[in-house]
Amino acid sequence: MSRKNIGLLMLLAGVAMVFAWVVMTQGPLAPVKVTVDKVQTGNLANSVFGIGTLKARHSYNLAPTMTSRVKAVLVDQGDHVVAGQVLAEMDPVDLNEKLIGSQRMVEKTANSIQAATAQVSEAQSRLKMVSATVNRYLELRGKGFVSQDMFDAKQHEMNAATSALTVAEANLAAAREEHARAQADMRGIGKARAQTRLISPVNGVVIARLVESGSTVAGGQVVLQVIDPDILWVETRIAQQQAGQIRVGQTAQVILRSRPQAPVAGKVARLDMVSDAVTEERIVNVLIDVANASVGEYAEVTIKLPEMNNTRSISSAALKRIEKQNGVWVLLDGRVQFKPVRIGLATINGQTQILEGLNDDDTVIVYSQQALRPGLKVKVVSELVRS
Amino acid sequence: MINLASRDILHGWGKFVFTGIGLGLLIGVTLTMAGVYRGMVDDARALLENAGADLWVVQQDTLGPYAEPSNVHDDVSKELLGLPDIQEAGNVTYLTMQIRHDGKDIRVMLVGYEAGKPGEPGYLVAGRPIYQSHYEALADIKTGLSLGDKISVRRHEYAIVGLTRRMVSSSGDPMIFIPLKDAQEVQFLKDNDALVNERARTAANPAFNRPGIPGLLEAIQASQTSSRFVNAILVRTAPGTDEAVAGQIARWKHLEAYTKPQMDEILVVRLIATSAKQIFMFLVILAIVSAAIVAFIIYTMTMNKVREIAVLKLIGAMNKTISGMILQQALGLGLIGFMVGKFSATLWAPLFPKYVLLLPGDAVSGFILVMLMCAVASIFAIRAALNIDPATAIGG
């Protein structure tokens, strides 16, 4: 064979080898690439994430108690108000006149009491005189100076005077009752009159002015909203699966939409007893101290959970769920095998606590290039995706 | 006996090899085309495999989330769990949309799923699964996103925490997975302008804004902004019971339930049928063109050797020997062409924007077809060679 032929044969052999290499490593016959990891032991720090809206802890809706027309709204949105300040007034219609009428009635009944008192004293005086006369007649009758007939007449006079006193006393009591009733009426009308004023219950800020002067509002319809701006919290919605470990007092980090670069420290202040059954979330209120925040603002809350010490964990990506069974693929002599495990908590930075099912020296497959099946041959690489 | 074909090839091997490479590139294109078709089918199947479900429960009288719009209330999944033989049920939403990242648009299928339920991607190639209940996302590497990237979808920014591979929609768009609640918001919550308009429209409606009923309007407006719909419910059943369960669901729940083979049929037969036919047409044309080229090349090569063949005939070579030489050359050309074709297809397949799946079976049948084609194509050349008059060797 000539040199040219040998060269050509070698070239052909080379081409065939490259071809075989391409078929074996690039195509579907190539082994699946995976990355592996060992079970780790250490501390696990976890946190829970939720979203919520910024709200005032105390919010007051001011509304008239009965349907009425708004006479004046004295404050505007954003105004600072103090406790007891009149914020709005309803039109009292005829309440002022009714109040004057009832005052007159009180005066009138007071006079009635005076008249009744005078009648009582007159009746008393009359009874006193008649009873003295009757006593005298009793003596005279004993000695036979007066007739039985005359004595009986005097006796009747005394009975009549006693009855007259009772009547006068009853009249006095009635007049007093009447006076009390008139006073009560007057107070009632006074209170109704006072109800036409909406008064701030706290030192706070007006956050909504919903109705203007001249409008007619139904009883209970909100005219103004006042909040206490010093105590703000984020009403946070936490998915039920993650809400189990949250306790009052845990610290949190809150990021408000308006200032994403400046996280605010917060503290869990209240856990609602009742979860939202529809969205399957629990409401957790996280108090924050922040100035000039707008109520209703969107916020992201990360609540820090207590650290777990000396815990065995694997990368969460390694955990698979096959046929309702949690487990991991472990590497045995270059082939994979599924091992069921019992897991604990999963942390937000990608570690899952392993309670049982894995030995410390097991090699766990974290990432794979495609779905694994038992007995599959794999090739371990350091990473599948260049970061 | 000496082999005439190898002698002839060695005589002008450069021409022969380069012709083979040229043919090979054409065969490579043909193989790639077949790979594109296989890729389309595989994309559709990957979608089904990734869902990890035995049953797709969708709105009544629709073909399911991949072929038609379908809306189901999300609490239906809990009702389904009460049925016998249903092991797991998970809500999913699918929405094909455009997202912007680094100034360029990426077309993706946004998938909303519930962690730990069917619909979750089966394996990752980097990062971790979603653990926060909001604003985290898993992206397919085909999106070009990497870990830690932030993408903005509608109102919110999502952090990429994990990467998947081969998670694509039936049309090959890479998937982005986000928590179900976020996905519901993306799909069903309107933008701000629409919300403001909607509120104004509701407030203008006297039926909703009645005097003397404080709070009615607010209540109605609040109810308009919440959405409790999903596109489908993925169900895992006890082994072998999927058809019975599907029947139960269709009968009693007034929903449609598709088993995996049914869904496969919808996706592969109905959805990509036209594209598949298109590619098949290309494949046929390419095959014909390749055959024509092989025939043409062999014919030219034979015609260039008219004198030599005439001499062979003169010295008494048999027809069998001459046609064997031409056939062997054609097959050799086919072999080189196939190797170059397979090699180039394997190398350039990953560069294609859509998935190209090269199956070993296709390669084998492709090889047989190429050889057959070359054999057939050599018939003209053989015929021409046999017709050569031995006198040509001496004549002008």
UniProtKB/TrEMBL annotation, chain A:
Gene Ontology CC: efflux pump complex
This protein's source sits in the domain of life called: Bacteria
Establish whether keyword Coiled coil is in the entry: yes
Q: Which InterPro entries match?
A: Beta-barrel_RND_2, MdtA-like_HH, RND_pump_MFP, YknX-like_C
Report domain Multidrug resistance protein MdtA-like alpha-helical hairpin positions.
114-176
Q: Which residues form a coiled coil?
A: 158-185
Which keywords appear in this protein's UniProt record, sorted alphabetically?
Coiled coil
Q: Which residues form the CusB-like beta-barrel domain?
A: 232-294
Q: What are the YknX-like C-terminal permuted SH3-like domain coordinates in residue numbering? A: 316-380
Extract the GO molecular function terms from the UniProt entry.
efflux transmembrane transporter activity
Family designation: Belongs to the membrane fusion protein (MFP) (TC 8.A.1) family.
Q: Which PANTHER family match?
A: MULTIDRUG RESISTANCE PROTEIN MDTA, SLR1207 PROTEIN
- Its name, as the record gives it, is Efflux transporter, RND family, MFP subunit
Per the UniProt entry, what species is this protein from, by scientific name? Answer: Sideroxydans lithotrophicus (strain ES-1)
Tell me the classification of the organism that encodes this protein. Bacteria, Pseudomonadati, Pseudomonadota, Betaproteobacteria, Nitrosomonadales
UniProtKB/TrEMBL annotation, chain B:
* Keywords attached to this entry: Cell membrane, Membrane, Transmembrane, Transmembrane helix, Transport
**One GO CC annotation:** plasma membrane
Residue ranges occupied by any ABC3 transporter permease C-terminal domain in the UniProt entry = 280-390
Specify the domain of life of the species encoding this protein: Bacteria
Spans through the membrane = 12-37, 279-301, 322-343, 363-386
Ranges for domain MacB-like periplasmic core come to: 21-250
Predominant cellular place of this UniProt entry's protein: membrane
Query: For this UniProt entry, which residues form the secretion signal?
Result: none
Q: How does it sit in the membrane?
A: Multi-pass membrane protein
For this protein, the record's InterPro entries field holds:
ABC-4/HrtB_transporter, ABC3_permease_C, MacB_PCD
Compartments where found: Cell membrane
- What is this protein identified as? Uncharacterized protein
Organism field: Sideroxydans lithotrophicus (strain ES-1)
